[in-house]
Amino acid sequence: MGIAFASIWGLNMIRNNLLATAGVVALGLTAAPAFAAGTAANSNIVNTATVNYQVGSTPQTQITASNTLVVDRKVSMTVTEPGNAATSVSPGQTGAVTNFLVANTSNATLDFGLSAVDAANGTTLHGGTDNFNVSSFKIHVDTAQGGVFNGTYDPGIDVETAFVDELAADTSRAVFIVATIPAGRANGDDAVITLTTQAREGGTAAAQGAVVAQTTGANTAGMDTVFADTAGVTDAARDGQFSARDDYSVSAATLSVTKVSRVISDPINSTNPKMIPGAVVEYCIQVANAAGGADANTVVVSDAVPAQTTYDSTYGIFVGGNVNGTTGFCEAGTAGGSFASNTVTGTIASVPANSTRTLYFRVAIN
Asked: pTM of the prediction?
């Protein structure tokens, strides 16, 4: 009986020591660095304690005790806007693309539903203030080419869809909003778009899963679900969603045109020529682009020659020149343009913002 009592007492001491040691180990684990997503959801963590003992000097059969933990699912995600800048667009532009990056920071593979809306007028972003809505927009998701996601919008390849399918833990996917900008928008106009993601069940390729539900009540023996997402621009923390914004900022060319003329010569006067029949007159068309906007490209200028005059084909047409700061008339430029149906036409390749380019030609008064 003394030996049996001593053995039981010894076993209790061993068990207490094991429990104390387990507590120290647990404390040590809390200080260890964690991965972004952590241990995969629904994993089993098995821990086995082993006891070896003797009765007298004789070893006895080893005894063990095991415990199994089921790792719960932590659901979180982020949406960011690469570049953190407005997308510059032109009035009337189609296929205007703004980029987002959806990251799965959960510890499980999930689908992510996608929805986009025009922000309310007055919403501010990147120094702009929303004052118009895009004509239309569609959501596209980066599609692998040769097994690689390039993060760049490829028309006809990146599929239009309402969800990111089977996004693994600790991975991300580029999402594109492709919109049409209404014609007639002015320089500096701004349209803000809000993209919201919704955590959905993964597991079935090419099909959007059901909305993920958070486990309520006490911890269960199975895999529970915990929302760990932070608040986005329009959603709250721990709601299984995340939202972010980007904007389209209109960069327009603001053009104005001025037409002046001057007498070059007449048949009578050698100096101070007058507008008499036979006089040669130069028409100077000046196209100005205001500061702060976009360059104007392929600017086509047409001018019908008055019936009382005859186009001077010997002199020709000059395009892309400047305005002389002293005389206010055209100078320089490159010979080009065309004359047909009594109309002068020329194309100025570019009129940069805050600059003026010209087209000029000469006629004779009949």
From this structure: 0.77
